[in-house]
Each structure stands twice: as C-alpha cells, then as structure tokens.
Amino acid sequence: MERLSLELRSQAGILEERRLRKTRTHAKCFTSFNCSLFSQWEAKASYQIATPSNVDSSNFLRLEPSKINGSNSAMPNWNIARSNYNSVLDSFEDEYGGIVINADRLPQDPNTFACALPVSLSYWKRIGKKGVWLKLPLELSDLVPVAVKKGFKYHHAEEAYVMLTYWLPEGPCLLPANASHQVGVGGFVLNDQNQVLVVQEKYCDSAFSGAWKLPTGFIQESEEIFSGAVREVQEETGIDTEFVEVIAFRHAHHLAFEKSDLFFICMLRPLSQEIKIDETEIQAAKWMPFSEFVEQPLIQDDSMFKKIMEICIQRLRKNYCGLTAHPVISKFDGRWSSLYYNVGTNSQDSNCHVS
Amino acid sequence: MERLSLELRSQAGILEERRLRKTRTHAKCFTSFNCSLFSQWEAKASYQIATPSNVDSSNFLRLEPSKINGSNSAMPNWNIARSNYNSVLDSFEDEYGGIVINADRLPQDPNTFACALPVSLSYWKRIGKKGVWLKLPLELSDLVPVAVKKGFKYHHAEEAYVMLTYWLPEGPCLLPANASHQVGVGGFVLNDQNQVLVVQEKYCDSAFSGAWKLPTGFIQESEEIFSGAVREVQEETGIDTEFVEVIAFRHAHHLAFEKSDLFFICMLRPLSQEIKIDETEIQAAKWMPFSEFVEQPLIQDDSMFKKIMEICIQRLRKNYCGLTAHPVISKFDGRWSSLYYNVGTNSQDSNCHVS
Hints:
2 copies of one chain form a homodimer. By secondary structure, chain A is of the alpha+beta class.
C-alpha cells in the first residue's frame, strides 16, 4: 500500500519530497552541528496510504488507513468503511514526530481546506504527532486566513511563500526558530600611501553627515563574508580588492525587524586605485590619509569605532592576527563551507607575525 | 493641518510610530553601519492630512490633501472636493521614498481593504513613492489574500504577523532583505584532568550514532554568543561554565529554510563537574579523555572537525589566540553591543601568549 502511495504521488510531489528530504538532512546534520534541533525536518515518507480513486477522487486528500479506525482487515470493505473515514491532508511524516503538509497537494478551495484541516489536525494529534508545517505559496494565499482561524501561527516567510506551524501536544512549542540574524560587512582598505578608502553615504542621519566612513553593506543570500566585503567595496567605490582577514566582529540586537546583526570588519588589499562611486547610495568616496581618518570626531568620540581603529593599527604593525577564511569540507554533508580562524605565527600562510 | 492629523491619531498609533521610528533609527544607523540600506525605514511622520469627520468618518482612511487634486485654496470646499477625493490608507512616510501602512488603522473588512488598497497604491505611485510595507497581524489574516491579489509579496513573518511589501516604481525592487542567518554555538569544555565534555545526541543520523561530540545549539532571540554557549552546555549537560574565547567560526549555506548558518566554536572554562543531561535531546554525556575524543573516526575522518581540534590543541598550548567578547557602546545608538576581537599578546587581559 505504501508503495502504491509513492507511485500515485505526482512527480512534483516526489521532487518536493526529495528537496525537503535534502534540505532537512542538511539542516539536521549541519546547522550548528546539532542533530536534534531540526529533527522535525527529516522527511521520511508519507505515512498516508493511498486508497482506490472511487473512494476519494481528489488529488489532495488521503484517507486514514483502516487500522486507525479499528479495522484490521487486510482489504477493508470500502463501502462500509467510507462513512467512517475522514479526509486527511496529504503530508510527509518526519521521524521525530512532525508533519509536513504536502504543498503540492493542497486543495485550492478555502472551504474544502477549512473542512480538511481540523480533521487532519485531530487525526495527527490522535496518532501522537507534534509540529505541523504548512507552506502556502503566494497563489494559495486564500488558505492563509483559514489556517490562522484553525490555530496556525506564522513561522517565517520568503517572497513567494509563507510558512505556518501548529503545535499539537500540550506544553510549549518546541519547533525550531526562524532565521535570527542579518550579516553585514565593512571593508578596511589601505593603499601603499597609507590612505584608507572612505565613503560619505547619501542617506545618513544628519548628526553624522559629512563624516567619512568605511564602505559597508549586507552580504547577499548565500554569499561568503570574504566575497561580500569585496563586492560591497567594489559596488560603492569601484575599487577592486582581495580579502585578507576578518579583523573583528560586532554582535548587536533588536535592529531591523527586531532581528540581531553580526557585522564583520574585514581587511582588504586594494588591487586598483581609481574610484568610481555608486551614485544611488554614495555621495562621495576618496582615499584619505589614515591619520586624518582616525582623527575624525566620528572615530575619536565613539568608543566602538575607536577600538576598531586601534585594532586595525595593531594589525598594520603586525601585532594582531585576524581570522583568515579556509575552505573546508565535512563528511556530514559533503559540501564546502568556510572556516574562519587565526592562522597564528607558526603557519606558512600567516598574514601577521605576533612577536 | 498636519498638527491636527497628529492629534487625531490614536495613542496606539503614536506609540507604534515611536516604536517604528526607534527601530528604524537603529536599523538605519547600526545595521552594518550602513545608513542607506535601511533608509526606507526611517518613519518621519504621516503625510496624510486629516479632514473633517463629516467628509470621511472612518478611523482608518484618510483623504488626499486637496493640493494633490489641484486645489490650491487654503480651505477647500469640502462638498465640492469630496467627489474628487479618494480614500487612502493611513500610513507613515519615510524620508527616502517608502510608505509604512499603519497597522493600527487598517480596515477590518476585506472588502473595504480591497477597495482602499489599489486607490492607495495608485496615489503613492503618483506622488513618487517606492516601497510599501504592510504588516498584518494574525487577527487580520483575512487581509492577506486581498493584499497578495493586489500584487503584494511576502517579506518576512514572525509568530504573530506577516510583513508584505509592494515595490511601486519600474525596475528592480530595492527593499532590504529578510534575516538571512541562523547562529549556532558549540562549547569546547576541558577540565583539569584533560577531559573534554561530550554528548551523544538522541536524534542523530545513524551514520553518526554512537559518536561523542561537543554540546551545540542555536542561540536564542537576542542572545549573546558567549552566554548562548554557556546556556547550551548547561542545558545539555548540567555543567556550569564561563566563556573564554571564540576559537573559530564556520559559515555555511542552504541549510534550514534555505538560510545560511554561522557556527561559533567557543572555549569555555568548567565551573562544575557533575553531569546531569537534558533527556529530551541528549542520550548521554560524559567527561572523555581529550586524546580519546580526537581519535574518534568522527574527528579523524573529517577534515573540518580535525582542523577545529587542531586549533583547540594549539590554543591549549597557548600558540593560538581566539576572540574575546568586549562590551562596547557606540554613539550611533547609545546601546551596548559586543565586539569580538583577539586581545593579542601585549594586552593585560590576554588569554593566550603567542610566542
């Protein structure tokens, strides 16, 4: 029966399941190297058992297996069983008690969905399931208020979908949290005339207008810190650079959308000299004598910026080692990632020499 | 007139505006120290001008100012003007061309909202606005499909609301992105018998079952890396510790919810010895001889874990300096944040001595 269910599942559904399975496996094994936190996400297989099409011809609803309703016959009497069966939304089961509703098999009609959802929740609760994941693409936004009225809450959203969740058991919800951080980078670029690359931003609080600062920005989706810093400097100033080290990072909270922020100060080596600014964001850019840059009130009157500049000075004197980026591969997922560490003084590839 | 508008605005609306103003200011000035990226978020004031209640008595709709419709009279003729006016949703304007729809003044009725939204969008487009932000709390989920049908897309969501956006101008959307990262921590805890604190997780891929690993987990909302590592170790093993250093960090992509992941390996000093595991997540925990720990195939056969352990060994020999956490305050927002940097060898508070 389970085999039949797999065969009946649409190709799109299978692909989605594979994608989910892949994503969850990565999540499970790699995110913070913690196997349990994302355990809900390991999609195994649908526990739904397909039934003959004359019992339920919709392509999104599945009937509860007869054993759930107390029948132990290998081949239930469909005509009798029918009135006892309830329609349950097609879903994938995860091995730790979660349910992932199959987004490809959802009813389009809000009324049908409104009927199927409480039946499904009741069934999943009865069989001891925990978290329920419901991903609604933009084109199924009509189902959002239905899900909310049945007790679903928002979990996260991307441009094309919103993810909702429902926690079935009594007690606190143990589902993993949404993404919590923005990641920004700043580029410290010094040329061989001891001039630092600085910008004036177009849109800045009047209290800081006229101040010259390092080029900064957010890294893009799936972008590396080292390449994000190089890109931001290139976009804002037109200067090509190569990444040297992460000098320090700052962790702050309750910023945009109440999220936290990690900001990495990166030392970059200039590969070109001619400035060409991005006029949408930047008012002006220039090479500024380093001593003049640090003497600005923006730096001198601010303990954080002052400290960052002290670190940069120590680095320039080779009394400080930052973190270099090293590609690593782990058997956990077989893919490359970046490990940032201080190469120390004994290493061949050391950028600094602490004495 | 603007004064009148401010006075008419509900207390809740004013508080919301203040909250937005505060959040946006922080976002603008601090998130990655980039003033322009979040510039859309600087709520200044509603540009809507209140009109006498006999013209429009609803508490969520505002009329376009007469000058928009070509009347230059200081006191428009309301009876004549009325038929020319269109209802526009109450909103805050930001100084860089964005509109933040006032969530406290939204119509409850989807049909009313469906009428007001296109009128509002048309008006905002006509006056040259760019991004439109629409925050819909759970209780207004009925409005989600209405907004989506008018062209809004999801931006992000938290448990109690979903944020939608609409980009008015021609050309690519320039609104800032959603949070992009999860942040995890791992605790390397060594006692004075050269034993490392290790755990076996309850839910782990069978390929890694039986392996002893460092305690790991995600940091919580607005939690510090240094306190998150201490908390995770305490929760999983019952061992109290104090933070010493971030030894290294790993950056990986396309993990849970397709987000990226930053994982910080933290050295912690044990303050207690007696293990008491968290039975929901952890199968077992123990103090394991360090040499035995690193000899495990999980470490020896994996270039990433092997490298991390090599760094820890260098650190134990004081040939490596990690990053310590330092509270800093910046005039940019007047609040404390944490700056992580290598204290170097010349510092009084150095944890390591590179020679």
